[in-house]
Records
---
Amino acid sequence: MTAILDVRDLKIYYKTPVGYVKAVDGVSFDVKEGEVFGIAGESGCGKSTLVHSLILRKPPMVHMGGEALFKGRDLMKLSKEEERRIKYTELSIIPQYAMNALNPTKKIKDIVWDLAREHGAEDRREVEKLLRERLRMVKLSEKVADMYPVELSGGMRQRATMVVSTLMNPDLLIADEVTSALDVTTQRVVLELLHYFMAEGIVKSIIFVTHDLALLDKIADRVMILYAGKVAEIGPTEEIINSPGHPYTSLLLESLPKIGVHYKQTKLRGIPGYPISLLNPPSGCRFYPRCPYGMEICQHVEPKLSAVDDGHLVACHLHGGESNE
Ligand code: SF4
Ligand code: MG
């Protein structure tokens, strides 16, 4: 499969009065055409920063190095005009708080028309026809087109936002924590819709960002686990879930409630400690302060990603990978 997005050694920092926060610090991965690529980790691991830097980069976010080749073009080098042009048409994002993302003062059809016109559409009737068709596809009434976002329930607004984000058939759709504020039933609807967008060829690939590994099992072909701005592990979802290679992934998985077991009988094992400060991250493995298996070497030598299986890479000295130093 060809890669639609190829990210190499990307560094995205935040400029603050006390120095740079190294939110994304040398991350590499690719997203293939036709796949759902999951990105997971605790809040603050850099996953939102990473995906937002691809299309919505603005101060205090600073690109410090590396590249993100999208269909051959480096997203880090696009002009504001080029960025505006590809947004929605080639690369689209459903934001984290999708339910509140739509302009409350405009009807859905006007929001969509503004967007389409900005991208060169001329025939308003055509655009509205497509909107109504897509609303029906996601099992919303066509009447939603004539409504204001505030007139819709949370779940309906979520679906309407998904229709708006995908109306121009973007090649790559980024879904950033789109399910986190939703109840389980609405979550399921959102996952079904994403599958449907792929199956219908409305989008070619999806990056699905979440802190919930259990969801990735339902949607992602491959998963990347981020910890403190670095890739901890990357590989096929099934393998990551069934035989995680990084201690952090194992702990994340252990902290999930078990299906079919009453919550009172499950001992949720949180991960002890807190993520390190990304202002002055220590040398060596960033997970060392919280890792139950930390060794001498982990304190001062940064583990490099190395293959433990076909397409399964882990950055941990337990796997005897070479070091970065
Ligand atoms: Fe733990 Fe060392 Fe592996 Fe880091 S490199 S996750 S500290 S064992
Ligand atoms: Mg986030």
---
Amino acid sequence: NVAVRLVDYRPADFLIDAVALDISLDRTASKVVATLSLRRNPKGAPGAPLSLDGDDLTLVGVKLDGRPLGPQDYTAAPDHLLLEKVPDGPFTLEIETRVDPSANTQLSGLYRSGSAYCTQCEAEGFRRITYFLDRPDVLSVYTTRVEGDKGEAPILLSNGNPVKSGNLPDGRHYAVWRDPFPKPSYLFALVGGDLGALRDSFTTMSGRKIDLAIYVEHGKEARATYAMDALKRSMRWDEEKFGREYDLDVFNIVAVSDFNMGAMENKGLNIFNDKYVLASPETATDGDYAGIEGVIAHEYFHNWTGNRITCRDWFQLCLKEGLTVFRDQEFSADMRSRAVERIGDVRGLRLAQFPEDGGPLAHPVRPEVYHEINNFYTATVYEKGAEIVRMLRTLIGDETFRRGMDIYFERFDGTAATVEDYLSCFAEASGRDLSHFALWYSQAGTPILSTEGAYDPQAKTFSLTLKQHTPPTPGQSEKKPLVVPVAFALFGENGEKLELASPDARADELARGLIELTDAERKITFAGVASRPVVSALRGFSAPVRLEPAPESADLEKLLACDDDPFNRWQAAQSLALRAIFARVDAAKKGAQTPQAPGFIGALRTILAGADADPAFAAQALSLPSEIDLAREAGHDVDPDVLFSARYGLREEIGRALGADAEPIYRRLSDAGPYSPDAASAGRRMLKALALDLVAAGDPEKGSALARSQFAAAGNMTDRLGALTLLALLGGEAREAAFAAFYEQYKGDALVLDKWFSLQATIPEPATTKRVVDLMRHPDFSLTNPNRVRSLIGAFSNANLTGFHALDGSGYDLLTRIVLELDPKNPQLAARLLSALRSWRTLEPRRRGLIEERLRHIAAQGNLSPDTKDIATRALS
Ligand code: HT7
Ligand code: ZN
């Protein structure tokens, strides 16, 4: 694939004002007739030929203004249609193509999921349906007529509002849909199938009644109840928080089982991976419910941030994705516990985005070049993109942020916008120059922030020096200082929050406890400080940076006790845990005696004792960092086995010390009534699982007995899977028996079996590679279904540090084999799987060598897809 560069952006040479699509569904030869109302773009190149995008298309015929064209009038290939000469005034082009949905294993364009027909057009799937100017800055009004067999596809859906429908000869029927809102082709969607529906309605703030429907496999309608509730809450929230009202008469969601990502925000017709729609207490965990709520909200919020205002080009992807992630995170924070949501979001950012930013796949939130756009739906664009929006709000304040958003919606509605357009609204609302802040969009890499305090007991002053630097990333060796909002507080001897006075900071910075660091270094001397204070920096994780080094242990213990910022209280516990684990790692390397961590364990005992006040928070604070967290924090020469042993050892030490305190908590929380997915109940279940783990860590036999009875008696999937997770770790016959019983109970339910696959793939043992290989032969596994592949292979390679990185290279061999087998069928999925190797350079030399060999082998394959080639090449760069 050729490189596409942001600097090369040019407006399209033609505009397509209206599109009339007539699609006749057939399993292997669907007929597509597209009638395009074209005119030259005044901003395009005068006299340019008309060049339309295609991908794997079969052309049947072309008509210009109703006149059939001959082959001498155009050049056609599967990937383009070129007309050298077209009228200077407006004209219509009718293009007929044939597509084979059954053969479409890429799941991009028109394909079949089970017995249904569905589409996925973002980013470049529309060109696999018809020839088009398949770029996000060409906005058209669509009318779509869908025709299908009445038995096979009684439901026929597309974007917009239903216009008419009727019967046809030969058992066929049709439906016409019209979407009055101009949209880019990536938001086009169509569904045809025999589906059940859960129906409801929503009355908007201006009193319009919207018909809502969620289409699912027959018999599963009740499992969409939570998704429907989440949808209605999202619609209300967007009205209340952003003044955004829904605009069509209907809003439809369709759940399909074969989908490359989580969901897609097609105008008025969202298509979802069924994992993010279907839930019942017996089949879904608390995490699944939270995921459904978040994804339903995310796709709904795109109606304004993405659809009504779209992106000028794919480099601006963060404009819709970062902003919409920010909006869905805020929604979840309002629906649930803000503190727990923030901790979860930051954990997610550190898990997925920090390694991306620190490795060979690093790119700016707004990339400047791509070879394959599908590889840029990344944690950097989404999650770091959301953090930039959050920093902007922090800097200018809630009210000014809302004014800026209002200007954005008002000014850019119906357009394809850029990051500059977006920022201009906030510059106007706040009166600030945001040009320096904008560097967050173009500079890759995670900045490192350090704080250094110096107390002068004579002068009663405390000097705080903040420094920032960003390590180089591929293609960007020089880094500039960024605008970093550092939320902070000082705590006195007795844990009291200090009043801040300093000539070195603006009054508003002191009042808000927010320092704006804009240079590489800034020193602030606080006056009237009676004794050496403890600094709470980066409160609420006010910027996506690494704070290094963590404060001293005594200060962390103090923060854990007195900080009124829950995020930093949690962070203090994590930092103490990291310190205790790395002390064990160091001792193991030196062959020294294992260090104990009494101070840390004392702090955990206090959290456990007060856990009832906020069970979810306590569970988060008591959870040790994962091995993946440890590997990231170590940063270089990572030996997964050493990290595993150190973490496991500390877990045992904590269990021996706190198991007795944890058991009564476990027993008390086991007495919960009927299942409810609300955040408070979920928090209690989280604490219960944590308490059980503490008991098992100190006394594995007792833990196993409790887990076995919880597994057998569980009234919901959260408790059942929690018990199974512990049994999987403890091993032995009990584990195998529980896995077998779980399968017997849930066979036939693919989404539940995904949990069964994942859990087995993450058993931290060398034998897991063989288990994964065996499971690939299981009749319920399939390489053609992305959810199955992600739950088995994705879980193994991303979430099983010791198993995947087995020293014999068997995990790497397995991943290599699967990537190469999958690549011709579903390149997007293959490329994503391969990204599991992105942090290979942080491993110790032996494993590094093994991975490099496999990456070179993959990159050297002759017929690799652009997707996988791009990842392999960049990973090696
Ligand atoms: N905007 C959607 C992205 C998406 C996607 C991208 C590439 C290939 C397939 C895809 N399916 C969905 C989803 C979202 O961010 O809301
Ligand atoms: Zn999105």
